[in-house]
Specification:
heterodimer; A: mainly alpha; MetI-like fold; 2 domains; B: mainly alpha; 13 helices; 79% helix; globular
Chain lengths: 356, 255
Amino acid sequence: MQSERRQAQSDPVWMKWGLTATATGVIAVLVLIPVINVFAEALSGGIGVYWRNLFADPETRHSIYLTLTVAPIAVVANIIFAIAASWAIVHFEFPGRTLLTALIDLPFSVSPVVAGLMFVLIFGLQGYLGKFLRRDGYSIMPYIMAGIAAVAVIAIHSIMQHRQLPSANRKSHSCVIVVLSGVATFAAVLIIQLYFHIWPEHQSLKIIFATPGLVLATMFVTFPFVARELIPVMEAIGPEEELAALSLGASGWQTFWRVTIPNIKWGLIYGVILCNARAVGEFGAVYVVSGHIEGKTDTMPLRIEKLFQEYNLPGSFAVASALTLLALLTLAAKTLVERKAHAIHTRGAHTRGGIR
Amino acid sequence: MFYLSVLVLLPIMACFFKASTLSWNEFWSAVWTERTRAAYSLTFGASLVAAFVNLFLGLLIAWVLVRYSFPGKRIMDSLVDLPLALPTAVGGLVYASLYVPNGWLGRFLVPLGIQAAYSRLGIVLVLIFVGLPFAVRTVQPILEEIDPETEEASSSLGATRWQSFRRVIFPALLPALITGFALSFARSIGEYGSVVFVSGNMPYKTEIAPILIVARLEEFAYGEATAIAVVLLVISFSMLVLINRLVRWSRRYAI
């Protein structure tokens, strides 16, 4: 790098090293020392104590397990949403498109605590839906599941239809097919669920102070991450390659798996890494909806807080060190993906993504 | 679109709806007491100070990362992102334990009379930690894109190094700097996870607005909690609009 620098850009030597030393000092005090401190504190009682702190305590074990269930669900839901949303934003002009892009960023600016509060207001015992769900919650589940399946089928259908090369006389025909298949899916899924009694009847469905609430809150907080990464990548690629594939006779699915996914692969992985890191570490929103039922709704960050309040510092540092390790892995993976993506794509797709 | 509206719009609407069921007096008495005023002013004060510090640190670190090459540069570059990857609870926990009298840093600071744990200084410190990546990562790409020729031109016209920094580079960086400032400020206002560890949560003294919301919730005073939440929501919406404007402005300026 230094040799490329032109003379006008080179600073005096004392300034260069002075600034570098200051910056290194700042990073060391703000970031490096805390990270080292986590591991030092966690391991201060020796490996054996560390291991016991992390895995012998049933509540801590349960919190690890809970985090490992909540985070993947939220991440997968967000991936599906992000692909659909970014695809729609790039390929269609529809009313509310700018609104959609603005809304995607919204969870970034909403305080996590407020986000949690919003879910409590809706699903909590005194909330708008809380009473109904508490009384007879599972009775609506078949309908919800069937509805989700039907919407998914319609969405996939219409996207695939749209991706066929335009031919005017098939339009009205395909519309009917889409609606019919949607209705058929709804009925089929509904009947299957009712027939096999998948959901317990006349039982209350707890969302707040239970796992579904944790998933919802985590989803809310993390859902911009993947979408934000994908939209610029998709915009940079544009629809030309897909059209080329379609015109060469590929089906909608083939185009999706062979052309779209390979193109967005690195952006997608990058977004997933960031999203996962946030999903695992989310504290504020989860704190409000969890209700701190020990061994039930404590995720790892909440467990850290509880152990801290109980003055069990080695225990909380043990959990913290596991999360820190994950964060370091995240960073390593992120750097790797950045380099890979850098090599494949030209710059530009990531200048926007790098900010957050 | 459906997913989005269920997950985002509905909750926000519920929040405003709930707040609108309160009478004006109830709302006012919830959001404007001495305790909430102290919390707001602490939230904003600490966020402002942290964002200002981040403004300078962001410029410094971005400058060093872009302009110089030194051993360990890559590691430093990725360490900048760590506050994003690290769960905020972990950050708060570590900061709380670093600055107590027998912590690694508190050992040296407390004898000097600097109490960083369980004080306002501690809050500012974690907010700096949390906001640092935003400040660095907004300035860095812009600084990379600045054409060396502009600096060459200014120095060939007889400008000193300092003059060309102040007159040429700084104006080009200004939008990015402001954006970074706004981003880290917005992040700081909503920050909860790390502050709750460090602050000690003493009412009137080290209690920030999100903590106050949680405190109200734990008293099952949903109405009051919502009222404070609405205040925060309105602030963060206006921050969002402002940031979007700034980003657009800085892009236009950069190209």
